[in-house]
């Protein structure tokens, strides 16, 4: 069973606290290039040092800023690898999947299903003429963006998924000996991690329903499918579409995307639309992969045999 793969003698919860701190420290180290670049650029332009995200965005070309921002995840995932191997004495694969190896077919099924849905919704909105989505395609900046995004965004999304749906979910399972607590805790922590996103400042705290709901959806995918492949595929698809296809001035990913949303951000019933799609996707994946025993997989308690059985 995937969530029980970290349940081993001596793998106490305090190790997960130390491991998480090391990953966070590595992420901060990975932000040093952005910090140095910001100081140098401000000095050369005769500007004051940026003290907020808005000023930081204004300082750089958006492609350069995206590159410098995402570099920190390279440091973080490398630190996570060392933490799992050296502190927990685990095979790194054990926080990825319960299968013998990564199931790339599952990854791409989730990736393309969500990509088709997302692209269709954006195109329908654009061609309907009722939205404030405009075309801003600029070939050279877009090609540079594509290279940066396709290399670094999968690293960013994989880092987040393996930290939350892999590493921490197993850690909280070791602590609680049940499955609902890890699912809840990782969803809430994942959601609150986005608290400082510019979308929250524009739309208010209620947008956290979306972030925590997304974490819950990804956690359910992981528990029901006994691995992170579907969550990895969905998350990579979601962020790549956000970076390459559509952007907005209030988005955390302000890029040279093909389209730009000029509408004023506001919270209304549309906040629940992604949740409806998440339910739809759970039904689709349940049909494809023949999921059953939902109650046990999402709310069951630990039994000693769970982590002793060979995982295939």
UniProtKB/TrEMBL annotation:
The chain crosses the membrane at residues 21-44, 64-84, 107-127, 139-159, 180-197, 203-223, 230-251, 271-289. Coiled coil: none annotated. Pfam families: Rce1-like. Keywords: Hydrolase, Membrane, Transmembrane, Transmembrane helix. Its EC number is 3.4.-.-. Residues 143-241 form the CAAX prenyl protease 2/Lysostaphin resistance protein A-like domain. GO terms for molecular function: hydrolase activity. This is CPBP family intramembrane glutamic endopeptidase. It comes from Flavobacterium ponti.
């Amino acid at each position: 069973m995937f969530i029980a793969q970290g349940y081993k003698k001596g793998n106490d919860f305090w190790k997960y606290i130390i491991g998480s701190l090391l990953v966070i420290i590595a992420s901060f180290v990975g932000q040093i290039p952005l910090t140095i670049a910001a100081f140098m650029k401000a000095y050369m332009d005769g500007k004051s040092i940026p003290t907020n995200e808005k000023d930081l965005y204004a300082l750089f070309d958006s492609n350069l800023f995206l590159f410098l921002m995402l570099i920190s995840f390279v440091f973080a995932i490398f630190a996570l690898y060392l933490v799992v191997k050296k502190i927990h004495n685990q095979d790194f694969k054990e926080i990825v999947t319960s299968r013998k190896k990564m199931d790339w077919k599952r990854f791409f099924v989730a990736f393309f299903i969500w990509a088709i849905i997302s692209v269709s919704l954006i195109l329908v909105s654009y061609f309907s003429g009722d939205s404030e989505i405009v075309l801003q395609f600029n070939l050279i900046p877009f090609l540079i963006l594509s290279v940066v995004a396709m290399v670094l965004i999968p690293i960013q999304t994989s880092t987040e998924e393996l930290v939350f749906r892999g590493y921490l979910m197993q850690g909280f399972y070791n602590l609680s000996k049940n499955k609902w607590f890890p699912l809840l805790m990782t969803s809430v922590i994942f959601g609150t991690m986005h608290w400082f996103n510019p979308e929250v400042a524009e739309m208010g705290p209620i947008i956290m329903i979306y972030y925590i709901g997304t974490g819950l959806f990804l956690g359910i995918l992981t528990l029901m499918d006994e691995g992170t492949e579907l969550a990895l595929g969905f998350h990579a698809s979601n962020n790549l579409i956000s970076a390459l296809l559509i952007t907005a001035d209030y988005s955390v990913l302000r890029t040279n995307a093909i389209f730009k949303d000029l509408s004023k951000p506001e919270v209304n019933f549309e906040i629940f639309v992604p949740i409806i799609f998440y339910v739809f996707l759970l039904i689709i994946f349940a049909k494809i992969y023949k999921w059953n025993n939902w109650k046990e997989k999402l709310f069951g308690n630990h039994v000693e045999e769970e982590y002793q059985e060979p995982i295939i």
